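Supplementary Methods, section 5.1.

A reviewer requested that the exact input to the structure prediction be made available. We therefore reproduce it here, unchanged from the version used in the analyses.
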Amino acid sequence: MIIKILAKSLHNLLLPGVLRLFLLCILAYVLSWSILAWVLSAFISSYIGVTGLDGLIFHVIGGAGGMLIAWFLFPLLYPILISFFDDNIAMIIERKDYPELPAATPPFWPTIMHDVIFSLKAIGLNILCLPFYIFPPIGVFVYYLLNGYLLGTQFFRMAAGRRVNVATARAMESNARWSIIMTGVAISFCATIPFLNLAAPIIGVAAMLHLFHALRGTPAQEVLPPR
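The structure derived from this sequence is encoded cell-by-cell as follows.
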C-alpha cells in the first residue's frame, strides 16, 4: 500500500496547482536551508581558535560540517515550511482524486507555534541520539526510524486535522501506527536524497493525505479505460 501511495504522491506533483506551489516550496526550501547551514557553520567556526593556514582549513571543515548537519536536521523543519502550503496542496489533490468529498474544515492541529514546538522537540531528540549516529549501521536505522515516526505522525495529523475530530484522528493514528511510521520513513528517506529532497515536503503532504483517505475508506475517483 505504501508504494502505491508514494506513486500517487509523485504523480500529484504534476498537477498544475501543486506544481506552482512546488516551485514556491523549492524557493522557501533553498532559502531556509541556506540560512540554517550558515548559522550552524558560523556556530562551529566560532569555536575554532586556530589562525593562519591551519585555521582556514579548520574553518572550511567546520563550514562543511555545518552544511552536513543542516542537511540531516532540515527535514525536521518541513512541518513549518509546508504549513504555508499544505491546505492548498490538499485541496488540489482532493479535487482531483476524491471529487465527491465536501469542502474540508480548517485543521485543528497544524499551527505555526505547534509546528515550531514539534521541530524543536524533534531536533532535541536527534541531538540525544547523536551517540548512535556515530556508528553508521546503527545510526542509519535509528535516524530513519526516529524521524520516520516524528515526520509520519506530524504529517498524518496535518491530513487528519482537515477532516475528522481529535478523538477520531487519534484512534486512526493508534490503529495504523506502523503504516504511518513506515510512510514517515519513506518521507524521511526522500528528504535525504539530493534533488528529491526538494519535493519531499509536498510528497509528505500528498502521501499522508492518501494514507488518511485509505484508512478512512474514502472512495477515490475511478479512472475508466477508453472504449
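Residues 2-216 form one domain. These observations are discussed further in the main text.
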